């Protein structure tokens, strides 16, 4: 029995090259990842700052400073504190379902623009907050911005990129997420040292910088050829854009596939209803499980709460923030490496390498904390730095695999007729489980203690096995002919092969351009 599937590459079918036009366009769009990463990094940093905790979360501050009897694992266990962190993700979950019809009806650029404006508003509210309500309303606005950006930016990147380089271009989004996390961690390290206790305001308000770049950039971004065909009655406009994007006039085979995909998409009036059809079963399963697995790797535990986690094992405030900078730098470096190799070695190989590395690292961290970190006191300096190294190893594995590939795979597997709906489901599931993990982690750390790392390590083992058996290789497969990989897969072919390709009126339709 063959596991996975490797389909023959059709790269030679499409002409084109990497042009400065498409690189610049994708660089601007990918700043949508910076706003997401910046928020992930900034929220974890400010929640470890004493002035911020004293102003908005005095009970947590009292436990951290004065209560010597409480367990190391329980000092930061506060529902109000987790509500601050996780409110963004429940807002993003709701926003992504509004983003889907906007993206489908008006194109990718309007959704990116709305995301940038909402994030700007959230940054202003956060930086000026004088009570917890204003702080959380700002978080909700940030969530709306991230919801729209995360729904539209990965689609934009995948549709603009040449098929042979689609993995690298799409990973630009996760690379920018890593850049955002690193910038946030560096900024937190600096603002924490500001005398007067107002440094956290700078950290929160500076989110406006990447949001401004995204918003202003979106005003000048071109729409993707796919979107132009979908929304414009003049096919010549889309054809000229495709020629400009690919840097050649010889784009007829790719243009034909785009036109065919658009004709199919016009037969689908209710994409959220149609994605439930049996022929789309593989894509629906991946739309749900890929973002679910990405969150239960435990990465956002590290991203949100890295400074808190390092304080738990005995690091000081500045050392905790600097440790978060180190882990952020490692993750960013590995994402850049993944960007370079993913279109050469394939998605499945990268998933396997990263999965094994993450599993081993988490089990070792859990073992050290179980053996050496009690309810009181801290780890010795040697063990503390060993945990830091292992967490860096874990972050490196995620930055190589589930970080970028968790965004790449869903954005490239959906046919045009359900692409916007599918990406919305992916983003919504990601936000839902990010919210659940963020809302429960501090309580888990308090009650499960070091077992928390074994919990997430077990999920990493499950997802690595799942990818090996059920995810076909998508390397070099043109995005509008991606349906073929499921028809050749040992498991999924029983689903996609049993339902004829028919429109909503049960009339046969053409699925490929010959």
Automatic annotation (TrEMBL):
Family matches, as Gene3D superfamilies: MFS general substrate transporter like domains
InterPro entries: MFS_dom, MFS_STP/MST-like_plant, MFS_sugar_transport-like, MFS_trans_sf, STP/PLT_plant, Sugar/inositol_transpt, Sugar_transporter_CS
Membrane topology: Multi-pass membrane protein
UniProt subcellular location: Membrane
Matches recorded under PROSITE patterns: MFS, SUGAR_TRANSPORT_1, SUGAR_TRANSPORT_2
Pfam family, one: Sugar_tr
UniProt keyword annotation of Transmembrane helix present: yes
Gene Ontology, cellular component aspect: membrane
Gene Ontology molecular function terms on file: monosaccharide transmembrane transporter activity; symporter activity
Family note: Belongs to the major facilitator superfamily. Sugar transporter (TC 2.A.1.1) family.
Protein name: General substrate transporter
The organism of origin for this protein: Artemisia annua
């Amino acid at each position: 029995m063959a596991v996975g599937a490797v389909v023959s590459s059709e790269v030679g079918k499409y002409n084109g090259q990497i042009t400065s036009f498409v690189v610049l366009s994708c660089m601007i769009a990918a700043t949508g990842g910076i706003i997401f990463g910046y928020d992930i990094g900034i929220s974890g940093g400010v929640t470890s700052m004493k002035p911020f905790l004293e102003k908005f979360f005095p009970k947590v501050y009292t436990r951290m400073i004065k209560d010597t009897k409480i367990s190391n694992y329980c000092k930061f266990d506060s529902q109000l504190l987790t509500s601050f962190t996780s409110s963004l993700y429940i807002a993003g979950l709701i926003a992504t379902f509004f983003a889907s019809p906007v993206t489908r009806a008006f194109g990718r650029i309007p959704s990116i623009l709305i995301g940038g404006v909402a994030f700007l508003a959230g940054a202003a509210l956060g930086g000026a907050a004088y009570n917890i309500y204003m702080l959380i309303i700002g978080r909700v606005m940030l969530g709306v911005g991230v919801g729209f950006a995360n729904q539209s930016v990965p689609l934009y990147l995948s549709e603009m990129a040449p098929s042979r380089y689609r993995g690298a271009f799409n990973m630009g989004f996760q690379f920018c997420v890593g850049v955002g996390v690193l910038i946030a961690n560096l900024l937190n390290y600096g603002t924490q040292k500001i005398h007067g206790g107002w440094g956290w305001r700078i950290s929160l308000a500076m989110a406006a910088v990447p949001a401004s770049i995204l918003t202003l950039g979106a005003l000048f971004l071109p729409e993707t050829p796919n979107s132009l065909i979908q929304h414009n009655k003049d096919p010549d406009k889309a054809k000229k854009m495709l020629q400009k994007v690919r840097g050649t006039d010889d784009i007829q085979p790719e243009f034909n596939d785009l036109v065919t995909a658009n004709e199919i998409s016009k037969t689908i009036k209710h994409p959220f209803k149609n994605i439930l059809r049996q022929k789309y079963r593989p894509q629906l399963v991946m739309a749900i499980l890929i973002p679910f697995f990405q969150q239960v790797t435990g990465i956002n535990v590290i991203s949100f709460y890295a400074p808190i986690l390092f304080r738990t094992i005995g690091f000081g405030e500045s050392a905790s923030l600097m440790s978060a900078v180190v882990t952020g730098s490692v993750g960013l470096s590995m994402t850049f490496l993944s960007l370079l190799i993913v279109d050469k070695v394939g998605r499945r190989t990268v998933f396997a390498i990263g999965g094994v590395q993450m599993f081993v690292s988490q089990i070792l961290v859990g073992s050290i904390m179980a053996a050496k970190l009690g309810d009181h006191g801290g780890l010795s300096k040697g063990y503390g730095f060993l945990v830091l190294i292992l967490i860096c190893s874990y972050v490196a594995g995620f930055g190589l695999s589930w970080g970028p590939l968790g965004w790449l795979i869903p954005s490239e597997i959906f046919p045009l007729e359900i692409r916007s709906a599918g990406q919305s489901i992916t983003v919504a599931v990601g936000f839902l489980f990010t919210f659940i993990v963020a809302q429960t982690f501090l309580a888990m750390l308090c009650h499960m203690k070091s077992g928390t790392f074994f919990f997430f390590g077990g999920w990493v083992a499950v997802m690595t096995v799942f990818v090996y058996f059920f995810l076909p290789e998508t390397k070099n497969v043109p995005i509008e002919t991606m349906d073929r990989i499921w028809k050749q897969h040992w498991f999924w072919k029983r689903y996609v092969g049993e339902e004829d390709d028919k429109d909503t009126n049960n009339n046969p339709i053409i699925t490929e351009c010959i």
